Amino acid sequence: QFTNQSYRLQIENYVCDAEVFDQLSERNITDQNIAEAERIISLYTGGYTEKNAYDWALSKATMMKEKLLSFLYQLIDYFTKNDNGPKKQHYLQLLLKHDPYSESAIRQLMQQYLTNGNRIEAITLYKDFTSLLEEELGILPEPATSNIMKQILID
User: Fold this and answer.
1) 107 close to 122: Cβ distance less than 8 angstroms
2) CA dihedral 76, 79, 84, 89 (to 10 degrees)
């Protein structure tokens, strides 16, 4: 529609996955909405306009990623409280895909692997994480992370 020397676009029944994710990720996760929460996470397939790298979208992309990480931590907490190890492990792995430097997630995933009796996976995760930190940041893991590894080697 052209009015006042400009065009106006009216769209009915408009749905935008970024807006849906943005709105629904604000909710707390409960038994009643866990299925919807998992569906919401599946909407996030990558950074907001990351393929085009628009400068104007950088702040929105940063905000969306922060919401994703926060929402993933909520899912992890939910599945920890509900003693669902496979789902907890899945969301920890997904969190690390989006935030590979999260030591908290590394520690939780190492512990989850140990709970599952998967000692080798916990050791491999630690070694890969240590290499990542050394190669990309020139640092070592936090003492809390290293202590889990030390405990694994003692046991």
Assistant:
1) no
2) -10
**R_g of the chain computed on alpha carbons:** 20
Q: Is it the case that residue 50 has pLDDT exceeding 70? A: no
- DSSP H or E stretch at residue 127: helix 119-132
Answer yes or no: is pLDDT of 147 > 80. Answer: yes
* DSSP class of 28: P
- % of the chain residues with pLDDT over 90: 61
Structure tokens at 64: 């969306």
Burial of 137 (0-12, 13-18, 19+ CB in 10 A): exposed
Instruction: Decide if 103 contacts 145 (C-beta within 8 A).
Output: yes
Element spanning 77, H or E:
helix 58-81
Residue 40 near residue 21 (C-beta atoms within 8 A): yes
C-alpha distances out from residue 103 to 26, 61, 65, 116, Å: 24, 23, 17, 20
Among residues 10, 46, 41, the alpha carbon closest in space to that of 2 is found at 10
pTM, entire model? 0.84
Residue type, 111: Q
